[in-house]
Amino acid sequence: MASSTIISRKMIKLLSPTPPSLRCHKLSFMDHINFHLHSPYAFFYPKIPQNYSTKISQILENSLSKVLSFYYPLAGKINNNYTYVDCNDTGAEYLNVRIDCPMSQIINDPYNDAVGVVFPQDLPWSSSLNRSPLVVQLSHFDCGGIAVSACTSHTIFDGHSLSKFINDWASTSRNMDFKPSPQFNASTFFPLPSETNLSSTLSTTHPSKRHVSRMYNFSSSNLTRLKDIVTKESHVKNPTRIEVASALVHKCGVTMSMEKSGMFKPTLMIHAMNLRPPIPLNTMGNAVCIILTTTVTEDEVKLPNFVAKLQKDKQQLQDKLKDMKKDMMPLYTLELAKNAMNIIEKGTHDVYGCSGMTNTGLHKIDFGWGEPVRVTLATSKNNNFIFMDEQSGDGLNVLITLTKDDMLKFQSNKELLEFASPVVESTK
To answer: Containing H/E element for 251?
Structure first.
């Protein structure tokens, strides 16, 4: 197992101080009810041009200092009841770390869990209350490659906001004259109602069983094959890449569950849906609603049927939100989340979270020395499927997280391997 040594730890201050008028960043109701965790992303760069190798940290520090002047809540402190951020310019935490192995040992491990070494210990998916909302780690491998990881507070950022920040940081790193344009105005769309019980937030469940992750790739041609299967056998029109891929991995999850128990168990898949638009694209914060898709029979699990059901659930949610006042959206989102929590607590369904970080540009993040060979997250503590753009082409990578025992069954599923390839082959 690779070990890491901290070379330096510092707080990166803002290049320009936050104006007094922006000192108190009001969190929106959607921010307030969200999971108060650090979301952990990592970007791996194995070959660094010689002219960059000795100044990478300085480039990242300088560009981070400047971009934080625009993303000032990330350098502040979240108050205890998650109603505002004190934008006091404390700064973002920044670690320089030496890892005692070549990068290949990490990214060629069949289980994605090995990437945990490029994140600050115990930080991924942990509370963001008493830690900087942004913690960055620059990891140096024995081979000369590096990884840049960022853990951002989910209270302040959803996936869209995180991708906007990372892209703006990379753009600033390449060109210090670049000027980001984020708007921290989500509370104007989703204000905290005065009568709201401010202790009401989404709880997280961390099962005691160990979870592991593996990444699979759906090539463009295999996604087309899946779309053809779905459209030929149903009335589904124009299924998306994520719809057909999530239908397949969901079906494989059901097969795995039936092999384990000998019977069918209903399922709940929780899809995250971005609310931009109608919320403006440059609005930072949390602007996400969830789609709840359940199956209660084996017939509903079939690819065409599941995609049809998913599309119907998505359309019903969009229709519901279309005529809804924006300030009512968080209450409705909270209601959906509580419905999901009730199902989870009853234990009647196998539950899978599903989110898409596609069309975000994260697979091409270039700080000045080229694009990454791998983009991934730290392993979470719940069953989920996270979809990302592959490093080249129009395919998809999906990071699948299950319990260790379930993964052993899941990864040998013949239908899965017909359409998706492990990004790293297992030798175990």
So the answer is: helix 241-261
Pick the catalytic residue: 25, 36, 38, 154? 154
Q: Catalytic residue among 113, 142, 327, 366, which? A: 366
Give strand ranges (E) for 13-145: 24-26, 38-45, 77-78, 84-86, 92-99, 134-141
Angle value at C-alpha 313, between 258 and 230, nearest 5 degrees: 65
Residue 78 contacts by C-beta under 8 Å, 6 or more apart in sequence?
A: 27, 36, 84, 85, 86, 128, 129, 133, 153, 155, 156
| Distance in angstroms (rounded) separating the CA atoms of residues 85 and 155 | 10
User: Residue 48 half-sphere exposure, CB side, CA atoms within 13 Å?
Assistant: 22
What mean pLDDT do residues 339-349 have? 96
User: Which tokens belong to 95?
Assistant: 């670690």
Domain 211-422 sits in which CATH superfamily? Chloramphenicol acetyltransferase-like domain (3.30.559.10)
Asked if the 4-188 domain carries CATH number 3.90.1150.10, the reply is: no
- Residues for the chain: how many in total? 428
- Domain 4-188 identical in fold to domain 211-422: yes
Q: What's the rounded Cα separation, in Å, for the pair 169 and 66? A: 9
pLDDT of residue 79: 94
Contacts (Cβ under 8 Å, ≥6 apart) of 207: 381, 382, 403
Question: Per residue in 283-315, pLDDT tens?
Answer: 999 999 999 999 999 999 999 999 999 999 999
Instruction: Please state the domain extents for the chain.
Output: 4-188, 211-422
Task: Give the rounded percent of residues in the chain with a pLDDT score beyond 90.
Answer: 86
359: left (phi over 0), alpha (psi -120 to 50) or beta: left
Report the distance separating Cα 120 and Cα 150, nearest Å.
Answer: 9
Q: 350 catalytic, yes or no?
A: no
For residue 125, what pLDDT band results from cuts at 50, 70 and 90?
very high
pLDDT tens digits for 88-110? 999 999 999 999 999 999 999 99
Active site residue 299: no
Distance CA 244, CA 258 (A): 21
CA-closest candidate to residue 187, choices 65, 70, 22, 373? 22
